[in-house]
Amino acid sequence: MAENTMTVTVAYGTNKHSITLTAQDGHEPLLKDLCDALTDATGVPVPSQKVIFKGKSLKDMEETLSSFGVKQGCKLMMIGKRNSPEEEAELKKLKDIEKSVEQTAKKLEKVDGELTGLKNGFLAKELQAEALNKLDQRVKVAAEQFMKILEEIDGLSLPESFSDCRMKKKGLVKTVQGFLAQCDKIEAGISDHLAKIQTKNLALAE
Q1: What is the pTM of this model?
Q2: With pLDDT > 90 as the criterion, what percentage of the chain qualifies?
């Protein structure tokens, strides 16, 4: 067995799960890696997990497993509650929203790249104003989509007990707000470049 992999057995309820962890970038597996793998194997979210080894509860997520004395072939125990089907359904909604955010972000990235190309003079001067107006339109569409997504996230009413969902919702709102700020920045860049072109054209006309 390669030195950078470790297999441990974790008992959860009446089931035993064999978990193989691989070191990332040469670093030993951390408690966090084991907990993530346990979420995949059992469906129990990390915040709800309590991992026990030799009667002690392991807490520090960033610590290596070996620092707790956990070695290849060790047996551990995990207690914790799976999310309710209701919370899983809300999590799925949030994951779908996350996909919409990613798709809209890709469109925005494209606009940003094309704007950089225009600024670098990849298009004849006389065609630039038209191209910039089209880009401006695309940014406005992306901003509208992000606003709709924010409304959708806002419309999700999550009970206090859905801690996993609430954390994800909070993170999504922050991400979308960041993209909206980026939309404003790109729009400002487009206006700025348009103004420069118009000033140049006026100077030429004189």
Answers
A1: 0.63
A2: 63
Q: Are 92 and 167 in contact (CB under 8 A)?
A: no
DSSP notation for 78-129 = EE--PPPHHHHHHHHHHHHHHHHHHHHHHHHHHHHHHHHHHHTT-S-HHHHH
Q: How far apart are alpha carbons 91 and 165 in whole angstroms?
A: 6
Task: Give the 3-state secondary structure of residue 152.
Answer: helix
**Whether the predicted pLDDT of 3 surpasses 60:** no
Q: Tell me the three state secondary structure of residue 67.
A: helix
In the sheet that holds 56-58, the strands lie side by side as: 15-22, 5-12, 75-79, 50-53, 56-58
Report how far residue 48's alpha carbon sits from residue 147's, in angstroms, rounded to the nearest whole number: 32
Nearest to 82, CA basis, from 122, 41, 119, 110: 41
CA atoms within 13 A on the CB side of 28: 14
Given a cut of 60, whether residue 14 has pLDDT beyond it is yes
Cβ–Cβ under 8 Å, residues 37 and 21: yes
Q: How far apart are CA 206 and CA 193, in angstroms?
A: 20
pLDDT tens digit sequence for 65-91: 999 999 999 999 999 988 888 888 898
- 3-state DSSP assignment of residue 6: strand
**Rounded distance between C-alpha atoms, residue 158 and residue 119, angstroms:** 45
Q: Is the separation of the CB atoms in 146 and 183 below 8 Å?
A: yes
